[in-house]
Amino acid sequence: MYRIMVVDDDVSINDMVSEALSGEGYSVIKAYSGTEALMALGQNKPDLILLDLMLPGLSGEKILEKIKDIPVIVVSAKADVTDKVGLLLGGACDYITKPFDLQELLARVLVQLRKRDSLITNTVCAGELTLNLDRLCVNVENTEVTLTRTECAILKLLMLNPQTPVGKTTILERISIDTPDCTERSLKQHISNIRHKLMAVSGKDYIEAVYGIGFKLKA
Description:
- It contains eight helices and twelve strands.
- It is of the alpha/beta class.
- The protein folds into two domains: 3-118, 3-Layer(aba) Sandwich (Rossmann fold); 123-217, Winged helix-like DNA-binding domain superfamily/Winged helix DNA-binding domain (Arc Repressor Mutant, subunit A).
- Strands 2-1-3-4-5 form a five-stranded parallel β-sheet, with helices on both faces. It has a four-stranded antiparallel β-sheet with strand order 6-7-8-9.
- Helix 6 packs across helix 8 (184-202).
- The longest helix has 20 residues, at 102-121.
- It is elongated, with a radius of gyration of 22 Å.
- The mean pLDDT is 89.
C-alpha cells in the first residue's frame, strides 16, 4: 500500500483530499503545518507528498528544499508561471493550482507513483498491464502472473508499442540478446502461452495476431 503525505493547513481541504486518497486504497499521513510535516517525515517516509506552500511554521518552499528522493506534487493557490517554474526546477515533480478537480489530482498522483515505480523496479505499463522486468511477472487485475524470460521479453516489446502491429522478424531481432533460444517456430507457442496465462486471470485476450505481419497488444 502506498503512503501519501498531505500537507495543508486548511483542515477542510486536507480532510477532503485525505478521504479521497483513502478511498483509492492509499495510506494517508496528515500534516497541517510545515513544522508538523518535517516531524512526520522524520518518522515515516511516504511514497509521495502533496504539498501546500502557504503553511504556518515553515513554508512549503523551505520544506521542498529538505525533501530528497520523494516525489512532491505542489498544490497551491499561487498561479503565477514564475512560481511554478521555480518550484519545478527546485525539485517538485508536478504543480496543481487551487481550486482543483479532485479526480485530476488523483490522476496526477497515480501518474507520479507509476513513474516512481518505473525508476525503482524497472517496470513497463500499458493499459491494465504492468510488467515487472526484474521479477519476470506481469500484474493484471491486481493478480501477479509469472512469465518465462522469453515471454517477458516478447510482452515487453508489445507493451512498448501498444495497438501497433510488430512483425515476427522484428520481435525475434529485438529479443535475441536476452532470449537467443526463441525461433520463428517457437514464437507462436510463446505468444500462445502469454495469452493463456493472462486469460486465465482476466478472461480477456490482450494479444491479437495480425495476418501477414505479426502481433499487437489490443486496446
